[in-house]
């Protein structure tokens, strides 16, 4: 007797699946750096306006994440660390992710303009466009400089927060931008050193794939040297002070030392110990930006001391 196979229905998307589209872990850094940029600005902001501003910046960051996941679903399905994301896992339809990203983009930009000012809203709109179109659609699949140029999107939130308070741009907000901008390449290249196969299999021209690990190590060390002066310079502006400077000096000494250790490694040595040094450097990079901005926040709370 023949049996009829009935396909199991596709699982329905849950609220948590749509939240995952917004890349909440990435959004947490966006929210924190935007909040610090707003809070350390020289113009006081009403707490309600500050809360609304950070909320709409977070929604804009989430919109970028949803649009990125919509376009990169084919790549995400190949890479081990992204295969469980909602779209490749079959939990959310690509069209729903696109609709969510576009809707949140419009709402976040419009509401930030109404809650704060249109300079901040314009910067948020540019950030979403840059991440979704310039980085995700254009740069990511076409050049090994993808993460260098594309890193500008992740560096803009503190500038947006500063603009929410002041209505403009200053040397302080530009240096906060530079701190994140020059941190982004070594952070992601360190990850790529021990995740090279994933990027190769997905066809993403990460520097490790196009130029090899040796060249990537040189680039990591070079960027740590470029990054340090900007991070320390921020300590001599109106938002800096002795506490921030002490934190910046220690963190950048550790970052440069880590980059130097990576530079001196060979592929054979790194593979033999499971890329232990590279993984430690990557973990350090996870704390690097957070601790700099936390130091700014505490320094501001101390009244510049």
UniProtKB/TrEMBL annotation:
InterPro entries: Protohaem_IX_farnesylTrfase, UbiA_prenyltransferase, UbiA_prenylTrfase_CS, UbiA_sf. Interacts with CtaA. Pathway: Porphyrin-containing compound metabolism; heme O biosynthesis; heme O from protoheme: step 1/1. Keywords: Cell membrane, Heme biosynthesis, Membrane, Plasmid, Transferase, Transmembrane, Transmembrane helix. Carbon 2 of the heme B porphyrin ring is defined according to the Fischer nomenclature. Its EC number is 2.5.1.141. It comes from the Bacteria. This is Protoheme IX farnesyltransferase. Converts heme B (protoheme IX) to heme O by substitution of the vinyl group on carbon 2 of heme B porphyrin ring with a hydroxyethyl farnesyl side group. The chain crosses the membrane at residues 26-42, 48-71, 91-112, 118-139, 146-169, 175-194, 220-237, 243-263, 284-302. GO terms for molecular function: protoheme IX farnesyltransferase activity. Belongs to the UbiA prenyltransferase family. Protoheme IX farnesyltransferase subfamily. It is found in: Cell membrane.
């Amino acid at each position: 007797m023949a049996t009829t196979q009935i396909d199991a229905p596709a699982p329905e998307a849950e609220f948590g699946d749509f939240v995952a589209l917004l890349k909440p872990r990435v959004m947490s850094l966006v929210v924190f750096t935007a909040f610090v940029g707003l809070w350390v600005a020289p113009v006081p902001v009403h707490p309600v306006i500050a809360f609304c501003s950070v909320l709409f910046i977070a929604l804009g960051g989430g919109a970028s994440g949803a649009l990125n996941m919509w376009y990169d679903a084919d790549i995400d399905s190949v890479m081990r660390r992204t295969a469980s994301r909602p779209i490749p896992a079959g939990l959310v339809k690509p069209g729903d992710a696109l609709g969510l990203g576009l809707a949140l983009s419009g709402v976040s930009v419009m509401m930030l303009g109404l809650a704060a000012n249109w300079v901040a809203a314009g910067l948020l709109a540019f950030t979403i466009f840059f991440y979704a179109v310039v980085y995700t659609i254009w740069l990511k699949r076409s050049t090994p400089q993808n993460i260098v140029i594309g890193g500008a999107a992740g560096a803009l939130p503190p500038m947006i927060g500063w603009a929410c308070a002041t209505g403009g741009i200053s040397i302080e907000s530009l240096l906060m931008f530079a701190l994140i901008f020059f941190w982004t390449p070594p952070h992601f290249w360190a990850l790529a050193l021990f995740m090279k196969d994933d990027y190769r299999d997905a066809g993403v021209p990460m520097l490790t794939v196009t130029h090899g690990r040796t060249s990537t190590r040189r680039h990591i060390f070079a960027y740590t040297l470029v990054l340090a002066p900007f991070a320390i310079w921020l300590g001599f502006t109106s938002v800096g002070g002795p506490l921030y400077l002490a934190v910046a000096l220690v963190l950048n000494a550790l970052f440069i030392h880590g980059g130097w250790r990576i530079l001196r490694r060979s592929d054979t040595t790194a593979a033999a110990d499971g890329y232990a040094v590279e993984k430690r450097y990557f973990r350090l990079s996870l704390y690097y930006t957070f601790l700099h901005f936390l130091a700014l926040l505490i320094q501001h709370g101390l009244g510049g001391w």
